[in-house]
Here is the input.
Amino acid sequence: MSYSQELIHHIQSGDLANISELLKQAVANDADEDIYLLADSLFQLGFLQETKTVLHQLQLRHPQDDEIKVNLAEIAIEEGQDLQAIELLDQIEPTSAAYIQSLLVAADYYQTQGLPEVSESKLLEAKKMMPEEPIIHLALGELYYSMGKYTQATRWYSHLLEQGYSDMGGVSIKARLGSAYSASGDFEEATPYLNEATQDDEDIDTIFNLGLTYFQQEEFTRAIESFQRVISLDHGYTSVYPYLVEALLAEHRLDEAAQVIERGLALDQTNHSLYLVGAKVAIKQDQFTQARDYFQQAYQLNPNSETMILEYANFLMYSEDYVGAVAILEDALSNFDTDPQIYWLLGNAYNELEQFEQAREAFSQAYDFFAETDEFLLDYATFLQEDGQRERLREVVVRYLDIHPHDPEMTQLLQRLDDV
Here is the structure.
């Protein structure tokens, strides 16, 4: 047994007492082949200082071996020595056998630094030099996937499948390809790849993505099956619960949906999405007190969610709690850029409270966004009639009739306005 092999054996056995001495003996006496393997093993085991010691010794013996510089650069990146890493990588010339490897390491580094365009340029340069190298194809696919450029990502994942690779570096190519198609909105194309991936390996994230893909296609029965499969594998995967409830709602399975909400909230009481969908279920079951409680919990957990604010405000309006509706809507206006529907709801709420000046202002703000929306125009016209704004009322009625030219009530209203 070489000193290198003995050293690794000691580390794997947890015996670290003599590793410094064994390391000295290894670099002094072992063959270069063993020492190269030792450096790789030490790096994989996380012994970075020891790896550097070995690599520096190898560099003294083989100063022209640029792969050593690449390995030292990887360690420098791990240790946060970014400038040192870049300096080492920049020393490697395009004619070097290690140049492709240096480009891949640089690409990975720049991606982690939030510079995906620089990473992309490194990978494309590598691809130009080795156009059929699968590791480069995978790196490009992963980069574009992380950038949200899913259509470009599918190109590289598809190419890997064509080359015969279904798994590489722990990445399921079918799962990635299916997820990329799904994220780009091509759900039909995504489904078979995700299905095959979940048959090959019960990866919980892939099964969840399959369920989401079915959900987007309104194949709710299959979505439910996938979501329930996720829970059977890990009932603590709490992000699945709101989607399962929504799918059960779509299938009118209210009792099951309510049970899922209870199970989910027992595991995670900070999931505002689950409280929000819970409110929907409670409303459908005519349990309005429960619905209000769920909305309040959701609002406390995430007061900046515009979707939640709009649904909560609509519920409060339905419950004739106009003061409560105004409170959360005005709070939204004061804290962040808001969905213009908030002005619309505020107009209706203030009108119900007979605070007409505030209603007038809110409706006017909403009009800039909803001048072509028939439901808003009806609400605004009703307010304008009560408010006595004949000129603006005529404008709104004309806009509404552009959308629904044969509406008898609005036609008669326009005639009355013109007769005055």
Observations:
- The chain has a mean pLDDT of 93.
- The CA atoms of residues 135 and 370 lie 51 Å apart.
